[in-house]
Write a structure and sequence with these properties.
single chain, nine-stranded mixed sheet, two-stranded antiparallel sheet, UDP-N-acetylmuramoyl-L-alanine:D-glutamate ligase, about 270 residues, alpha/beta
């Protein structure tokens, strides 16, 4: 798996996938910049008059529900349906769906359109979507992760999608294959947007990978390894410095980092 992940990361850098993002306003700049550092091309196209035409040019569509406005809702539905029609992969980040019931209804609408390729969320969000009663505080998970593998598998099988739950250990499954990614750093909790950024990276990797499961794994592992590298480069664990170093570490991530330091268990 590590060889396949390394190949996918190199493919992203070689082919520069175009990622259309309808994402939240708190972290939109971070998502754009980390996509550039990853080797992808970000396009924050969300006007409902433009999204359907643009998605035909995109390698993947990233939908993040973090600060969902009326315009974003309409644009997301239009773009997702068009992506499904054209075969463009769609990555959904169900931010705060466990705290705001309206978002669950919108997500069900996206699922009904059979547009979603992968869902990436924290443990609380994924468990809430799967009906496992996830515990959240606003946009953050306070869930202990109990039964998270079962929740991910249940959601994946129900909608025939790939599901990724981020946390101390990331869980990735398509219902048949399951992997646990054990790299990472607690410093992700000191900055806003680490989840949004890995969602954007997931869209980039899924947009270029033939095996979408491997694409998701590549994005999750890249973010986790970059976080570790950023932490190691700091004299003190300072949030602002970590944020900057994280971007540099995604940009500098090497094949050797993946092969030698990647901690992924597949079952």
């Amino acid at each position: 798996m590590l060889e396949k992940i390394a190949d996918t990361l190199e493919k992203v850098r070689k082919n520069t996938p175009l990622v259309q993002a309808i994402t939240n306003y708190v972290t939109i700049g971070d998502c754009a910049n980390i996509l550039l550092c990853f080797g992808a091309s970000p396009a924050m196209v969300e006007a409902k008059a433009e999204v359907e035409q643009f998605v035909g040019m995109a390698s993947a569509l990233y939908i993040n529900l973090g600060t969902l406005t009326g315009e974003q809702y309409e644009a997301s539905i239009l773009a997702a349906k068009k992506a499904a029609e054209l075969g463009v992969p769609v990555v959904l980040d169900p931010v705060a769906c466990g705290a705001i019931p309206r978002k669950i209804e919108i997500i069900k609408e996206l699922f009904a359109a059979k547009a979603i390729t992968a869902v990436k969320g924290n443990a609380g969000e994924i468990k809430a979507l799967a009906g496992f009663g996830g515990k959240v505080r606003g946009v953050d998970s306070v869930d202990d992760g109990d039964n998270i593998i079962d929740a991910c598998k249940s959601l994946a099988k129900q909608y025939n999608i790939i599901v990724a739950a981020t946390g101390k250990t990331d869980v990735l499954t398509d219902g048949a294959r399951t992997c646990l990614i054990e790299n990472g750093t607690s410093l992700f909790t000191l900055i806003t947007g680490s989840g949004c950024m890995v969602g954007a990276l997931t869209a980039a990797a899924v947009g270029i990978a033939k095996d979408k499961f491997v694409g998701c794994a590549a994005a999750l592992l890249a973010m986790s390894l970059a976080g570790e590298n950023a932490e190691k480069s700091l004299e003190k664990p300072l949030p602002g410095s970590f944020h900057v170093k994280l971007m540099d570490s995604i940009y500098s991530l090497s094949r050797d980092d993946v092969i030698k330091r990647g901690k992924i268990k597949c079952m």
